[in-house]
Amino acid sequence: MEILKLKTITEFFEKGLEQHIRYKTTPIELMEPMTYSLLNGGKRVRPVMLLWVLAIQSMDAVKAGLNTANALEAIHTYSLIHDDLPAMDNDDYRRGMLTNHKKFDEATAILAGDALLTDAFGMIADDDQLKPEQKVKLISLLSQAAGSVGMVAGQVFDIQAENKTITHEQLANIHFLKTGKLFLFAVQAAAIIANLTASERQLLETFATHFGRAFQIHNDIMDEIGTPTETGKKTQADSELHKATYPALLTLEGAKEALNSDLEKARSALNELTETTRKPYDSLEVFLQFVTLEQ
């Protein structure tokens, strides 16, 4: 495997994810909606970020992190299935395809999401490449990132902020919980699996925190100015739902300035990591390209 090649790492992840899900003895009635959403593409930013940090260390570390990357993507996919439901964002398309509840039905989509969420923790618990103490740390961190003090809490606050005026600090907190914590988990998991130093982990967390915020700001901006072809789903949906977004709070130009500020802070963390460790952490800048607006 070529180290630090986006296509190579992504293909390695895709192959591992498909092999894992295909070997399960899940009933076909549930497997079909699960794989429909899990295997329908996307940038795979979270799991590939996890594997990329491990690739900087060694190929053995990448192999040891594959099941954790699978678990992270399973939880992200469950969140998208549930986010799209009529009771939430009521979306018809995701990544250019019908959303799960439109392809199947609402009850099936809920259960497919439930299964992906629950199975994710088993992916880590059953991983024979990890030490018991690593498994416990990873499961604990992932539950915090995804649950009632992480992503789910952010989704609740996001719904509560509809049709309301909130502060910049409140909006940043919503998006840190809703979006940022899973990016943070990606680098924290890599640090646990590869036994990185505390200073290395801290700088990775700084990078992931600013990247996560930039990712959400970019998402908000593209909902305003993007096309369905670019985003893979209906645009201007946030404004129709009167959601709290960066363009709504800061204006479009203000949101672009905030995006560039977080991108620079993320880049600075990578530069410091590269200088202090003499490892090619600056290669992680490829992720910043995902959230950089075209001029």
UniProtKB/TrEMBL annotation:
Leading EC class: transferase
EC number: 2.5.1.10
Entry keyword Signal: no
Protein's UniProt name: Farnesyl diphosphate synthase
Gene3D superfamilies reported for this sequence: Farnesyl Diphosphate Synthase (1.10.600.10)
GO terms for cellular component: cytoplasm
PANTHER family for the chain: FARNESYL DIPHOSPHATE SYNTHASE (PTHR43281:SF1)
